[in-house]
Structures are given as structure tokens and as C-alpha cells.
Queue: 2 jobs
Job 1
Amino acid sequence: MNASLTPAQTVGPFFHDCLLGDRLAANAEEGGERVCLRGFVYDGDGVGVPDAMLECWHGGRFARVGTDAAGVYTLITIRPVRGSSLTRAPHISLAIFARGLLNHLYTRVYFPDEALNLSDKILLRVPADRRATLIATRDSGRPDASEPTYRFDIVLQGTGETVFFDFK
Amino acid sequence: MITSIGEIVRGDADVFPPYLYEAYRATIRRAPRMPLVEVPLELAELKGPLPNAILVSPGDADLTRNAGTGGEAIGQRLVVTGRVLDSRSAAMPDVLIEVWQANAAGRYIHKNDQWPGPLDPNFLGIGRCRTNGAGAYRFLTVRPGAYPWRNHPNAWRPAHIHFSVLGPSWSNRLVTQMYFADDPLLAQDPIFTSVPEAARPRLIAAYAHDVTEPEWALGWRWDIVLDGANATVFEEPRPA
């Protein structure tokens, strides 16, 4: 189809200094309700992936975060708000990179108790029994946090495998 | 190289590597096994992360000096340049390019890189720049060395520079690696060979004498082609 495109390669294990340095412009602090998203990135053995990186993109905001030694990421951003469309629920787009991922993966984080989830045209494309993998849950594990916290685990492979997207 | 190749690929399967490529062992427990869900591009995905999301200074593109020590990195000086184009060969300006690489001895400054290659105190191995109006990028660096890894017996990664390409669209975000022509290690490297054979040459930079600067640095040219903004987009209705 596109004979000339440049192929992807894995981000490898040594990206941190370049991609997770302190050069990101602060853009999560401006206007809106702060929200904390956190969770594990798991491999097919249920082991946390300690060398993954997530990129988040929503509402003109871009952020990157890496996983820690246990495979946990913590992302503080602004809660996406409803738009005018009834077929588009508030969500955060994620791209997942890691050693062993030859191309990055795309997924979306939706929020629980959001009525528009039932009519979101992307969620409706996902087999019903896999939709739950795209919906975060409330996380009460940070009682002292100033922002509401949601848990969103990313399962790269196996039982409960997260739904990943391809754009067509 | 004979290996099991998975069927799950994101993007054109003639171009992009499969998630499962068993010769690269780390894919075995990290590759998704369920089919990807095909979705239409939405306007929000066609727009890219803002180019000013990451700060860039002019000196960032000089990896031979950007360690800030006042000293210069050791190694064969290279100018690595090229253009970022869409699939119709139109220039893509204002694209953020971030690069990282091993030093001339094949060693990264990273706590997980512990093989006994020497570190270079004047080399961080990271750089960034934006493409100009003609879609061109340019880095001054040193030629990276090959380095060993434990994927298979006596495994060595060919010399390469990691490239992160960010900007024009969320959907054509690209992270890849640039290799050097005639590297004898390419054929045994399962990360390189994970790409369909016909597309592998697109990861290989060419020596470019017109880029070479007299009595200063050797020139290499490598263009990057991203899927253009010509896909059909599902437009959200405009707010009344």
C-alpha cells in the first residue's frame, strides 16, 4: 500500500535518558480537573514490565511516563471532558513502548460510571467481553492524594489482554 | 535465520515488524496474542502532539559536545542528516526528532548497560532537533560501536542510532533504528531482521560524500517516510 514507509523498531532498553529526561514542557498543570492514572504493565507471565514507556495524548496535552522497577507507571494529567458528540466518551489515548515491542501499541483509557461509554463508537467496535480492559477503575490506594486516582493496568499478553488498536 | 513469526502486525504487514518474532526473545512474552481492533482515525488522532511539547535548544543536535563538559566525544565524527517525508514525498516540517545511541565503544550511559566497554565522559549519547521547513534534520555525532547482548550466543547488535519521530500525527508516531550500510552484523540481528526483507533497506543509512565535511566529519544520509495525512478521517460533528 505504502511502499516507501519507514519500518518501526523496538525502543529497546536504553531510552530513558533521551525520552524521559526533564525536557517535557509542563502541560498537565493548566486548566481542568487533575486526575492520576496508575497501574501495572504486565507481560504474558503476569510479571511487571520494568522498562516500558507510555505516551499519553488527549485534548492537546502530551505526556510521557516510564514504568518503575515493579512495572508500575503513574501519570498525572487532566481529566478529559465530554465534547458535543454522543458517540464519543471522554478518554485518554495511550501509546505503549517497551523492549520486546517491535512496534508500539495503541490503546485508550475510558472512565467508569460514564454513560457515554455505552454509545462510544470505538468501544462499540470492541468485542463486548473485552471492553472492560479499556475502562479504568477507581483506586482508593492514595488516600492522601490531592487528585482522584484511577487504576488502569495494561496486559500485553494472555488472560485479560488489553485491547490494542490499529488505525484503518 | 529461521524463526516463528506472529500474525499480529500494526500497520502495513509488508513494512512493519510483527509483534511476535521469536528470534528476538523479548517478544515472546510481550507480544499481544489477540487480534488488534481496527478503528477509524478520528480528528484527534490525526492531529499530532504539539511540536512545542518538548523543549529543544540548538546545541542539542551536537552529540559530540552536548554533554556540557567542555570536552569533545571520542570517535569518528559523523554528520547524520536526512528528511522526514510523507508517503507522497512531501516534506514534513517541525517534526521532533530525538536520538539516542551507544558511544564509539558500544557502551550506553545507562545503569542496565554493564558490559565492559569504556564510557566516554564527554558523550551522553542523546540529542534532539526539529525538522526545518524542507523537512530536514541534522545531527553531529560519533559513529556508535556495536555491543553485545544476551539474546543468543555471541549476539552483537549492529551499530545503530535510535530515532523517535514525533509530531505530525498521533497515528504515525514512529520509533525506529537507523543502521549503517555494509555492517556485517545486520544479518544476525533479529531486531533488524524482524522487518520484512523488502523493507529492511529503508532502515539503512547511505554514506553521502556530499554531506561529508572536509577535514571534519563523514556524512551519512537517511530519510524517514511517515504515513501521510491522506487517510480518510471520521470527522466529529462541529459543536453548534
Note: The longest strand of chain A covers residues 34-42.
Job 2
Amino acid sequence: MERVKGIEPSSPAWEAGAFPLCYTRFRQTDSASFSVQIKPKLVSAITFVMLQRSMAPIMGPTQPGTIQIDETETKADLAAPWNVIVHNDPINLMSYVTLVFMRVFGYARTKAERHMLEVHHKGRSLVWSGGREQAEHYVHQLHSYQLLATLEKSES
Amino acid sequence: MTELRVERANEKQIRITGIAPVLAVMLREVPVILEMRDSPAAKNRLLPDPTSANEKANQEWQQIVGPELHHLFVSAGETMARDLTGLVADPHDINTGQLEFPVEHLRAWMSALNQARLILGEIHQIKEEDMNEANLDPRDPRDLAALRIHLLGYVLQSFVELETGHEPQASI
């Protein structure tokens, strides 16, 4: 989905290509691409979180643009499938939820409606499954549309 | 009762006509409703946690994403409030209510309308059965909130239809 400037005052939340929490797990060595992926306004927030974790500073002494990763995030944790779940609520319009699924996931109307009806009848729907970073991004997007969405680690 | 009509006036403008006086009042109340977005109940709904059990992840999310989403929601409300200054509505003439705003503001309007509906729902603890109640009494605060949610939903639905060209649906 292409976001058009001016629809709403520009906000990184609309434009984020990856969810901020993902950045704390980057092992990024290319300073050029680093600058593309990290939104300037978020750097201070990320730094704040990293400092809270007593992690190494964002910019290492030898390699500009290198993020020191918290190794407690295991490879298995990142590789395991994560589910994006949308929960029912009494206020959101069915048509609005369908539209959001089409916009966020690029789903065809029939698929978007199927998920919307599952939310309506079963109280929740697993709308997407895959890597954690992308899952976080989708939850972020769904929250920006005011849908109740959560992230769950797949049990499979 | 006039029929609300939402259409593209041209490539750059959205036009709403047939805005009944009561709907005009409710639209003008949206910015006031949005000022309640920071109440605990509304805040929990508009800025929900991303997990059901991981406190640490939820806390980080709220620290990093919370302000971004809050800014986004505030911006949408401000955009709608500015556009509402152009609302023409004579309380003595039900046929005159109309408004135009830039096409680029449509998503801000949808966001602001939905925020207002959700805030009303949280503050008045509106449940599914309240939304399905056919006999709402406007003298009752909760029923009045449900009526306002329905009426704002009517406008939101018109915007969704403009975006998708699809038939009306109920709430999920």
C-alpha cells in the first residue's frame, strides 16, 4: 500500500518499513542502509531503550552503523513463526475491518472478508503468520487503524 | 430526513451533502470527544498492548510505539477539526448541511471518526448487545453514546463505501 503524503500529517507510524522494536535486533553493518531503515525520530527512542537495557551504544567504536545485539534474543526466537491475531470488538464496523485487512496485508476482498467474519463469529482470527519483525510491523499497522491486534508465538 | 451523500466533487475534493442538523452537531463534537483520548479507558483501547502476556515487550512497545501512534491520532483529529470549520449547516434548514475537504484528508477523517466511536464505547462501556439494541433512549447516557457511535459510524461507513464501492455492513 502506498501512503500518500498529505492524507494525514506525515508520521513515521504510517511510513515505518519495519517496526521499531525490530531495530534492537538488527545486526547492521552497512551505514548507508542503516540510515535508510532507521527513522531519525526513532533513534533517540531506541537509544533510550538500549540504555535501559544496559546494552552497548548504537554506534560501536570501530564500525559506524553497527548495532550491538542483545544475544538473549536467540536465533530460534527470531526464526519461529509468529502469529498476528485480530480480536473482536463491538465498535469497529465490519466493512472498516475488511478495508483495513485489504490495505495492511494486500488481501483480496474475499480473503479479507473471511478473516473479518472469523473475528466476528469466533472472537479472533489469525490473519498472518511469519517472521517476528514483519509480524510486529503488521501489529503496528493494525493498531494505527485502531484494530485490536496481538502477536503470538506459533506453537507449531 | 435528508440523505447523506459522500462523493468526490472532483479529483481534489470530497463533498458531503445532506448533513442533517443533528449530524452536524455530532460531527462538531468529534474534536471534543477526541480530547478524552488520554483518559485511562480510552488510552488502553487506542494504544493496546501487542501481546497478552509478555510484560517486557508490552512496556517497550508502549515506550516506543505509543508516542508515535498518539501523534498519529492527534494529527488526524486536528485535520478533521480544521476541515470542520468549513461545515455549512443551518439548523433551520435540513437541506443545507454540506462540507468539502481535500481527498488527502479522507484517511484522517476515517481515523478521527473511528477514534471518537471507540472512545465513546470505552468511556460508556458499550457492549455488543448495546450496539444491537433497537430501542435506544437518548435520555440514557449509555444509550445516547450508542446512538452517537451509530451516527458517526454511518458517516464512516459512507467513507468506506467511497473507498471500496461496497454495500453497507454492520459492526463486527
Note: Confidence is low (pLDDT under 50) at residues 1-72 of chain A.
